[in-house]
Write a structure and sequence with these properties.
The chain is an alpha/beta fold and about 290 residues long. The protein folds into 2 domains: about 150 residues, Vaccinia Virus protein VP39 (Rossmann fold, 3-Layer(aba) Sandwich); about 100 residues, no CATH class. Helices cover about 40% and strands about 15% of the residues. It is built from 9 helices and 9 strands. A 7-stranded mixed sheet has the order 5-2-1-6-7-9-8, with helices on both faces. Strand 3 and strand 4 form a beta hairpin. Helix 3 packs antiparallel against helix 4, helix 3 packs across helix 5 and helix 8 runs parallel beside helix 9. InterPro entries: M_m6A_EcoRV, MeTrfase_D12, SAM-dependent_MTases_sf. It holds the Pfam family MethyltransfD12.
Length: about 290
């Protein structure tokens, strides 16, 4: 399966792993992504009869709401195209200052505009740009690496490609139920045969090199324990991502109907990664 473009670069997102995950998901009539983040898996899988996209992050869900709406989508395109034009000029290879000062200043200006913007559609367009060229999908700083693609900086190339895909992103969200809710409550509502749940919660602190990167979405160990207990009672099919851990393996590995899959990946979520390889695990119940 070829990896498809996704609208947002998001901290801890599954864009690089999406084809692998989609290939292991059970079949079902309906699909729900409960910790959406950048929604990389939804944008890489075929459309289902009923679909839910959920995340506690209000900025992320506001963006998807605006992207889904036909009128707001047109505003997002306009704002993104204007930002792309400005950044393309500043990032031109032959007119690039050594430390990318002007690009950084423009990024700061875009952030200030985003924070002050009252129009939700315009804010969504700015959010899209900031996330696409932000470091690790964050909006605190811009990526100004020396890597090039299509004769331009890699970050700019990725942004331009994403702008071209905006109509496809908008079309893919048609009919998707969007929500900003606690995952356990949503599971209680939609847990039935024929539903496939995919969960990518903030990973256990004990398995991560950094903590507090997910803001209000962070989960304590008791939160993870409660989630796992609920998943073990699900009637629907389930897939959940994580790093290897005694808690997850103790609850899920070997549990009736559950299968453990793993894949070695390059760590890219943290600037502090010394060992650049990590093992991603997907626990699946069909």
């Amino acid at each position: 399966m070829v990896k498809k473009p996704v609208p947002l670069k998001h901290y801890g997102g599954k864009a690089p792993l999406a084809p692998w995950i989609v290939g292991l998901l059970p079949e079902g009539r309906s699909y729900a992504e409960l910790f959406a983040g950048g929604a990389s898996v939804l944008f890489n899988r075929p459309k289902a009869g009923r679909e839910w996209l959920n995340d506690l992050d209000p900025e992320v869900m506001r963006f998807f709401e605006q992207l889904q709406d036909p009128g707001s989508f047109q505003v997002i395109r306009r704002v993104a195209d204007e930002a792309c034009s400005e950044l393309s000029h500043l990032w031109a290879p032959l007119d690039l200052d050594d430390d990318n000062t002007r690009v950084k200043e423009t990024y700061r200006h875009l952030k200030e505009r985003y924070k002050a913007e009252q129009d939700p559609s315009v804010a969504a367009g700015l959010f899209f740009v900031l996330k696409k060229i932000g470091r690790n999908g964050d909006t605190s700083s811009v990526v100004t690496s020396s890597r090039y693609r299509r004769s331009m900086p890699e970050s700019l190339s990725a942004l331009l490609s994403a702008c071209e895909e905006l109509p496809a992103f908008h079309a893919r969200l048609k009919g998707v139920h969007l929500s900003q809710r606690d995952a356990l409550g949503l599971i209680d509502e939609i847990d039935e045969e024929g539903v496939v749940l995919y969960l990518d919660p903030p990973y256990l602190h004990a398995t991560r090199r950094t903590v507090h990167n997910y803001g209000i979405r962070e989960m304590s160990e008791p939160d993870h324990e409660a989630l796992l207990r609920r998943l073990l009672r699900c009637r629907c099919s389930v897939a959940i991502s994580g790093y290897p851990s005694d808690l997850y393996d103790g609850c899920l590995t070997g549990a009736p109907g559950w299968v453990r899959h793993e894949k070695e990946v390059r760590c890219s979520s943290s600037n502090h990664c010394k060992d650049t390889r990590r093992t991603e695990v997907l626990w699946v119940k069909r």
